[in-house]
Amino acid sequence: MKKTAESAIADEAELLAIIRASFFERMPFNRILGIELLSLHHDRPELRFDMRAELVGNYVRNILHGGVISSVLDVTGGLVAFLGVQKKLQGKPVAEVVERFSRIGTIDLRIDYLRPGTGAWFLARGFPLRTGNKVAVTRMELFNDQEALIAVGTAAYTVS
Amino acid sequence: MKKTAESAIADEAELLAIIRASFFERMPFNRILGIELLSLHHDRPELRFDMRAELVGNYVRNILHGGVISSVLDVTGGLVAFLGVQKKLQGKPVAEVVERFSRIGTIDLRIDYLRPGTGAWFLARGFPLRTGNKVAVTRMELFNDQEALIAVGTAAYTVS
Amino acid sequence: MKKTAESAIADEAELLAIIRASFFERMPFNRILGIELLSLHHDRPELRFDMRAELVGNYVRNILHGGVISSVLDVTGGLVAFLGVQKKLQGKPVAEVVERFSRIGTIDLRIDYLRPGTGAWFLARGFPLRTGNKVAVTRMELFNDQEALIAVGTAAYTVS
Amino acid sequence: MKKTAESAIADEAELLAIIRASFFERMPFNRILGIELLSLHHDRPELRFDMRAELVGNYVRNILHGGVISSVLDVTGGLVAFLGVQKKLQGKPVAEVVERFSRIGTIDLRIDYLRPGTGAWFLARGFPLRTGNKVAVTRMELFNDQEALIAVGTAAYTVS
Fold first, then answer.
1. Chain B residues near residue C160 by CB distance under 8 angstroms
2. Which of D9, D23, D38, D59 is the most buried (most CB within 10 A)?
3. Tens digits of per-residue pLDDT, B73-124?
């Protein structure tokens, strides 16, 4: 039985709350990164995080550590992979959807560092390139608060 | 004028101390990762870090966050790139060598996640693939305390 | 002295002719791939090639060999890198620009294979991600004649 | 029922003949590349090919086209993935093993170009990094006839 648009929207809000509470907030390293979910849009979910002293790589120039960038872009790609799975499971119980989340694993990741990671805050956006039954491929972008493109990434994830 | 083997060894120890103090210990995110330098051998430098609660990605299975892995392997590759530069500058003042360190930047990075990051501690080892005047290419491996290969990486760095 | 728009356009046409004649048509493996230049637009140059029996990898399903895809996307990225250099050299003699072309080299390349390479012809499009003085980073896409996205790539090139 | 060592060796020879005849020799683009199977050793299979005029990218310096390198390393990684599958299917009919071969697909590929591709012939060697039930990850190296390391690669393949 198909769900009505209204209950689908409700599911989205519920899903967002569950993902936020059980996934991001309970994943210790995500807390260190300070990642906040901005959008769970299937075609372009968004995360953001603030610059903080702990995230600095080069203390002379006050720029993000490259590992912060790769970490955030991996999380962003994983979120895209998850949303692709979630779309395929539409109408399934939220618990089942959340369970699938925990099975998603990064196969590999490429990060291209384009500009120094300077800024007061950063926005990461992800895009699905392919959502298969076994593997999802995603593209990710990281912008600073001046909308400069700091880094891009591509990653493959197992989703089953 | 070539330096004697003895003074070269002295330089190595001095360099190690400077790198440790000024680079690793003052780079905030490296402290969060808990990276310790084990070896500055040109052909295969090594780092290690302990599992800590903050580094966990999946709290159910208690495994490293993928971002910790990509971060550490990027640092490892950067160290290989630096040591390649340092080898070319042998006999130059340590200050000049250290200055070059700060100019090394990651162009891009690929990480392959092979096995779950479980363990009490982890060892990262890097290898030079090519050390050019402009670009260095490196290969990296991450092992856990059981000597299982957790992840590998390849990266390119600007070195001038 | 700045060139007028008219002579700049003339340069473009001249450059296109030279690139086509001296680069693509004299590069043996590009002839095997059957690559034709469609557009030298700086922000999104395009190439195309026809499916031919020689380019098949899987003869049962009649799909492109993965190596054809990686080859064409590498050529596309190299073209983006070249056009970035050419833009910086605007107003310089064509000979100088062409000479720079021969110095461009691929540092590394990532290809993601998204869908089977079926089709009567294929279009590759490239985009600059960063055009530095030493390194250029590019993104590439391959579409088939149904506008399905077959593969994407990211690559870094030395440009000096 | 386990096979005796003797019949296992026979299987290897039979498999080699079948792979050579039905796979490499009937795959048109592999013929253009001129790939020959040297070894089907599970832990480090080897291919080789001769320099030929058609494979040249830079006709001034007479070096291999980068696409030839990425093509050969992709084939090498695919062979490693296949041999990993074959090892798991040991004792199964050759037909079944060969059928599995046709289902192997490249998910993604990274190639690092280390030195100009000059030489009279080239040897490619592959190594398994992980052979899972769904995904295999491989590492590849390309040497020239002087044993110089020309390029390396890493790739992920679907194997089911």
1. 134
2. D23
3. 999 999 999 999 888 888 888 778 777 877 899 999 999 999 999 999 999 9
The structure's pTM equals: 0.91
pLDDT tens digit sequence for A18-32: 777 766 777 889 999
| Nearest residue to B142 via CA among B63, B60, B76 | B76
- C-alpha Rg value of chain B to the nearest Å: 16
Contact yes or no for C119/C145 (Cβ under 8 A): yes
* pLDDT over threshold 80, residue B2: no
C-alpha closest to that of A67 among A77, A56, A76, A59:
A56
Q: For residue C144, what is the DSSP state?
A: E
**Sequence letter at residue D105:** G
Helix (H, G, I), strand (E, B) or coil at A125: strand
Instruction: For residue B114, give the nearest of D112, D137, D152 by CB distance.
Output: D137
Q: If you measure CA to CA, which chain B residue comes closest to A57?
A: B27
Proportion of chain D in helix, strand, coil states, percent, rounded to 5: 40, 35, 30
pLDDT one-digit tens code per residue, B110-129: 999 999 999 999 999 999 99
| D112, D115, D130: residue with CB nearest B154 | D112
CATH of domain A5-158: 3.10.129.10
Mark which residues 16-75 of A lie under 8 Å from B by CB: 26-30, 32-33, 53-60, 65-68, 70-72, 74-75
- Residue of C116, C115, C101, C75 whose CA lies nearest to C158: C101
Contacts of A134 in chain D (CB under 8 A): 134-135, 158, 160
**Chain B residue with the nearest C-alpha to that of D152:** B129
Count the Cβ atoms, other than its own, within 10 Å of residue A25.
Answer: 14
The DSSP secondary-structure symbol of B2 reads P
